[in-house]
Design brief:
This protein is of the alpha/beta class. The chain has ten helices and ten strands. The chain folds into two domains: 196 residues, Alpha-Beta Complex (2-enoyl-CoA Hydratase, Chain A, domain 1), CATH 3.90.226.10; 46 residues.
Amino acid sequence: MSYNNLIYTIKDRVNTISINRPKKLNALNIETFSEIDHAVKSSVSNPEVRLIVITGVGDKAFVAGADIKEFVKFTMEEGFQLSESGHKILTETIENCPKPIIAAINGYALGGGLELALACHLRVASENSKMGLPEVSLGVIPGYGGTQRLPQLIGKGRALDMIMTGKMINADQALDYGLINYKTTADQLMSFTDDLAKKILLNSSNAIKHSIKSINAYDKSGVDGFKVEMNEFGKCFQTNDFVKGTTAFLNKTKPDFN
């Protein structure tokens, strides 16, 4: 499938999905959101892809928020539906994706853009990045999971501070908060992300899939995360990857999970 707002490339088992609306600072409109949903699902079903990277085109923005023109006249019911649709994509497609997703943040990650990055499994940011949830300045709140994922990552107090003030933080602060996993220079962002992807790809994709499911069960209401871990742990046994990994360990060699 061709996309109007994405650049979709696959190389060395990695699918890089680049949001391609640089004149709009890669603002997240409904069509782009839908295309991201389709592109990630396509990667999941493609056996040639083992890892996904999401980034933005240009050197100014990852995603500088939602496209406000699309919802400025929405009713309460339409606002709920917009949030519900966004939650479904970010939770079911991104956060629960069985293949690891890295957000390569190359500039502004604001509003829905930061919420997209928060739903990814890992976040790498360039040193010129700015991150924030400024929705209160528009008379609304984060609607794509920001009020839930941000405090899980950085704590309730810091999340309240960021959301209530609407302030932006830089990459150093984001790293200190635990909002991002790594910080790098702008020119090294994609090469660093590529090296990180290669390290992940050395390991069992099957084990990573079960790890994601187990970790996502953490602190979920009504879900026993320990029980989920036990079940996912058991599912790893007698798989080809388990045989490869344990055999290589006993033979003091490196496993080949490709």
